[in-house]
Amino acid sequence: MLGSSAVTAPLERSVLVVLDDARFDAHVPTGYHPERAERLVAARAGLMRAVPEERRRGLEPTAATAEELERVHEAGYLRRLAAELRQGRGQLDADTYFSEGTYTAAWLAAGSTARLARELLRGRGGRGFALVRPPGHHATPNEAKGFCLLNNVAVAAASALAAGARRVAIVDWDVHHGNGTQDIFERDGRVLFVSLHQADLYPHYSGAPTETGSAAGAGRIANLALPAGGGPEVYGEAFRRVVLPLLDRFEADLTLVSAGFDAHARDPLASMELDGASYGAMASALVAQAERAGHGRVAFVLEGGYDLVALEGSVAAVARAALGEAMDLPSGAIRSDDRAAIEQTEAALAPYWGELSRPGEGWR
Ligand SMILES: [Zn+2]
Predict the structure, then answer these.
(1) Are the C-beta atoms of 324 and 13 separated by less than 8 Å?
(2) Which three-class secondary structure state does DSSP give residue 263?
(3) Which of 144, 266, 287, 324 can bridge 307 by disulfide, Cβ–Cβ 3.0-4.6 Å?
(4) C-alpha–C-alpha distance, residues 203 and 221, integer Å
């Protein structure tokens, strides 16, 4: 318990709990790959620049247990993955490599993100930032894909539920659809999954507005599939019309953010037009919503983002917002196809939530 003693005292809004470990840097590609160790170096630099040392608190990384992982991944998949990783170096699919340090990095990333979620749940109003690699949101119950092996944010959400959270919200603003997270929770009424992503991008088969969840999870999946080229105003409008009203009504005990930074205009893998300030504004809106909901708990978990300059600046903006710096959501004119995309999501969710952007039950 030594390692966690720093954060067992009631968490304060003036302190950011930071999860980081040099072992995440030992997951390394052979030759060039966009998901590289330098990403975390840049993200770290942004966070350090934005948050003075006395306002950071560390969290000792811990490897995920089988129990934690098996809440979201199939035991057979975990056995196959571990066996494959023991071979040292290779590919799990065309996009997803592994190296000698991958097993340790992946198990630490998932276990520590879960620990961060539990620590925030224990406190009041805590914010956290998990600077983890490899990323997680494409990993399904039984498949590694899209640079992802274990679904860190899903393992964390499941861990929070097992530790007593009644409901957990996951907001995924990575530019790619979080297919793995959706797969894991689409029948689970305790998890709200809201994704903002570029339409018709990897993984291609998922992320349509019509995918809204099923069984107990009906209406708990919200997909905003945004046309390429959309900028800050589009995300601002999607937040005002869909993301924030949904969060207000869902009344989670904890908000987890799959924080990819590849919708940045500089990113080489996608075609959206956000800037660092846009990410700060979205983070600020989520922190304000968490306060409005009464729990105040928000954890940002690194997913994608492949331009180092964009990563550093965006992580810095999010870290400042996490510590309470207020930033306004962008507003202004948007294209008609952007508006149509947002309206498709509203229409798909209407059977479950009614008219979202009109204040209704659950609004305060
Ligand atoms: Zn991505």
Answers:
(1) yes
(2) coil
(3) 266
(4) 17
E-only strand ranges, 111-236: 127-130, 168-172, 191-198, 221-226
CB 208 within 8 A of CB 182: no
H-helix segments, 30-123:
37-50, 66-70, 75-85, 102-122
Mapping DSSP to helix (H, G, I), strand (E, B) and coil, where does residue 271 land? Answer: coil
Cα of 205 from ligand 1 centre, angstroms: 15
CATH code, 213 = 3.40.800.20
* This prediction's pTM: 0.95
DSSP assignment string, 7-40: HHSPP-TT-EEEE--GGGGG---SS--SS-HHHH
| Residue at 362 is within a domain | no
**Annotated catalytic sites, by residue?**
138
Does residue 157 fall inside a structural domain?
Answer: yes
**Of residues 195, 174, 175, the one with CA closest to residue 184:** 195
Question: 216, 242 in Cβ contact below 8 A?
Answer: no
Q: How far apart, in whole angstroms, are the C-alpha atoms of residue 19 and residue 322?
A: 14
Distance 260 CA to ligand 1 centre (A): 6
Output the CA 135–ligand 1 centroid distance in Å. Answer: 9
Distance from the alpha carbon of residue 303 to the mean position of ligand 1, in angstroms: 7
pLDDT of residue 4: 42
Contact 155, 110 (CB under 8 A): yes
- Is 150 within a domain? yes
Instruction: Examine residue 358 and state whether it is found in any structural domain, yes or no.
Output: no
Provide the domain limits for residue 142: 11-353
The tally of domains found in the chain comes to 1
pLDDT digits (tens, 9 = 90+) for 274-318: 999 999 999 999 999 999 999 999 999 999 999 999 999 999 999
